[in-house]
Amino acid sequence: MVIEQYADSAAAFAHNAHCEHLLAEMNQLAEMTTLQIHGDITPDLQTFADSLPIAKTFPALT
After folding, report:
1. In Å, how far are 16, 25, 38 from 58, measured between CA atoms?
2. What count of other Cβ atoms lies within 10 Å of the Cβ of residue 56?
3. What is the rounded distance in angstroms from the CA atom of residue 25 to the CA atom of residue 50?
4. What are the structural domain ranges in the chain?
5. What CA–CA distances, in Å, run from 31 to 11, 26, 36, 47?
6. Inter-axis angle of helices 43-50 and 9-18, nearest 10
7. pTM across the whole model
8. Tens-digit pLDDT profile for residues 5-62
């Protein structure tokens, strides 16, 4: 299990871009079976989630 938290979707995308090589290595070591994204789901983030069959989005709790 990996839990990551970001200030906003731009920070999450920046992290993925910065760590792309590490994420590729991780995918060789383990299979990601579920991706949950919680919070303010921007259109770009929803498009990203929609591109992954394992991803599901959840709105921020109010």
Report:
1. 20, 27, 5
2. 12
3. 23
4. 9-59
5. 24, 8, 15, 22
6. 50
7. 0.81
8. 999 999 999 999 999 999 889 889 999 999 999 999 999 999 999 999 999 999 988 7
